Structures are given as C-alpha cells and as structure tokens.
Amino acid sequence: MRIVNRIALILNIIGGINWLLVGLFKFDIVAWIFGGQDAVMSRILYTIIGLAAVWCISLLFRNRMLDD
After folding, report:
1. pLDDT above 90: residue 64
2. What SS3 string covers 10-66?
3. Which of 22, 47, 54, 67 has most Cβ atoms within 10 angstroms of its Cβ?
C-alpha cells in the first residue's frame, strides 16, 4: 500500500507543478508534451492525476500507525 501512496504523491506533485506553470506563465506542460488539452494522452494523464488526488484525500484521514 505504501507504493500506491508514493505514486499518488508523485502524481500530485507533477499536477501541482503543472498548475504552477499554468498560473504563472499560462504554460500547460502536459498539453505541450501530448499535443494539446484535448489530446487523448493529455486527458488520460489529467484523469490519472485527478484520481491520485482523490486517493491522497484518503491519506488525510488514515491513522499513521496503519501505514508503518
């Protein structure tokens, strides 16, 4: 379970950095890499990052002792 938590955290960091770039420079690196926001690969990555964010919500409510 710890690996899933780490992957979710990494994906959220990627998403956060992407939003930072959008906010500061109006540059969406995911869209740039995959050919636009409407490209299938961009949408897949946005969905995966969103699911990782939902997963991380559950981390807020878990007892830390369960993960150790």
Report:
1. no
2. HHHHHHHHHHHHHHHHCCCHHHHHHCCCCCHHHHHHHHHHHHHHHHHHHHCCCCHHH
3. 22
Kindly report the pTM of this predicted structure.
0.81
Both structure tokens of 6: 């780490």
Distance of CA 4 to the CA centre of its chain: 13
Read off the tokens for 53.
């964010």
Q: Give the CA angle between residues 61, 62, 67 to the nearest 5°.
A: 155
Q: Which amino acid is at 11?
A: L
Residue, of 2 and 40, whose pLDDT is higher: 40
Q: Specify the amino acid at residue 30.
A: V
